[in-house]
Amino acid sequence: MGKKTIRESPYSSSWNDYRKRVLIFYLSWLFVPLFVSVLRYIPVTHYWISRAGEYLWIFYLLLFAAGLFRIILWRCPRCHKHFFMGRVLRDLLAKRCMNCHLPKWH
Length: 106
Description:
Number of domains: 2
Structural class: mainly alpha
Radius of gyration: 20 Å
Distance between the termini: 29 Å
Helix content: 40-55%
Largest sheet: none
Number of strands: 0
Order of helices and strands: HH
Shape: elongated
């Protein structure tokens, strides 16, 4: 039989970008236990290493915040406004665009 062609959405590249942003954010959550276990292994007697651990925490928190803001500031593929921010409302669990009401994953 012939190949079945799957009709792609005109917004599929935008949804793939959103999927990557969410994946990066979730991976940053999974990275926390590994990060904490490495920092606990570092002996406190080595001052410069423990000091470096403090800077690593700051670096990690900045990466985590950047991942979160990349999701928040993602633009709707239809109206090109922020998907999760309307005029007043902000909802990270929104199932539709807060501006043009495009369903998520459409």
